[in-house]
Structure formats: C-alpha cells, structure tokens
Amino acid sequence: MRAALICGLALCVPTFAQTASFLEVADRWADHFGVARELVRAVIEAESNWNVRAVSPAGAVGLMQLMPETAAAFGVRNRFDAAENIRGGVAYLAFLLKRFDGDLRLVVAAYNAGHGRIGRAGLHYRNPETVSYAQRVAYLYQQHRRDLRK
User: Fold this and answer.
1) pLDDT (0 to 100) of residue 19
2) Predicted local distance difference test score (pLDDT) of residue 2
3) What percentage of the chain reaches a pLDDT higher than 90?
4) What φ, ψ does residue 3 adopt, rounded to 5°?
5) Which of 29, 31, 79, 94 is deepest in the core (most CB within 10 A)?
6) C-alpha dist (Å) from residue 63 to 44, 68, 81
7) pTM
8) d(Cα 11, Cα 84) in Å, to the nearest integer?
C-alpha cells in the first residue's frame, strides 16, 4: 500500500482517506490474529499517530514502529509498507498476548521495551518511558473501545 502524505515543515500527516484505509487493514489483521481491534488501533496511534513514514531515534519504523529484528522475526521485508508493517506488528501483539497470558499491561510494556526485558522483570519494570507509554496505550484503548461500540 503506497501512501501519499501531506507534508510541511518536516511533518508528514496521512490524509483522512489514508487513515481510514490503514484502519481497514489494521482491523483485518486484528481479526485474523485474534487481537482486539481497539488494542491494535491504540498501539498504532501511540507508536506513530498513523504516520506511515514515522522513524524513531532508536530505528523503529512505520505505523507500528517495528525494529529490524522484530520485523524480520515476523516476516516483514519492507517496514515502510503499511500493510506489511501492520501485519507484522499485529502478529507480534498476538505473540505477546500468548506469551503473557493476555495480560495487557505486560503485552503493552513488552511491545515498547521488548518481551525479554518484560519477561524477566514483569510488572516490576519501571522505565519511565515504558510506564508512560503503557498509560497512553491504556487511555487510547479505552477511547477506541468506546468508538467501536457506537
């Protein structure tokens, strides 16, 4: 899926139509992998704010901010391809849900900090960035949950 972005002042924002298209892809993969749609939407919003060209200082790329190792592990060849990125990110969420027995606190923390680190520390992991990230995803999850019930 190619996306033309509205760019200015070094900020690129997807158009409404592109975001709607990304939502459809996200929902399709969420259903395919058995991951709650609201979780996938919350993670994408927290990670990239729906910016397909987002790149973090750590090297995470795309809508779901996949690191190279995670992308490779889940068969993503082009992290900038929205559909591939979403598929890989949702597959990773499904893996984390199984690994952490559905505990969304641990799943979200692991998505941010890495499943090895969270697997060792569990809820005792107190990195401020990860704590803030988990709180943001929880808030967005509740927002998307309400939106999907309408």
Assistant:
1) 66
2) 34
3) 81
4) -130, 125
5) 79
6) 6, 14, 9
7) 0.87
8) 23
> What type of residue is 58?
A
Q: What is the mean pLDDT of residues 63-91?
A: 97
d(CA 6, CA 41): 21
- For residue 19, what is the enclosing H or E element? helix 16-33
Locate 79 and state its tokens. 């992290």
DSSP 81: S
The domain ranges of the chain are 5-149
Distance from C-alpha of 88 to C-alpha of 84, rounded to nearest angstrom: 6
Tokens 């709650």 belong to: 36
Residues classed as catalytic: 47
**Which residues partner with 5 through β-bridges?**
14
Domain 5-149: assigned CATH number? 1.10.530.10
What length is written for the chain?
150
Question: Cβ(102)–Cβ(93) under 8 Å?
Answer: no
Which string of b and e fits 27-48 if b means at least 16 CB within 10 Å? bebbeebebbbbbbbbbbbbbb
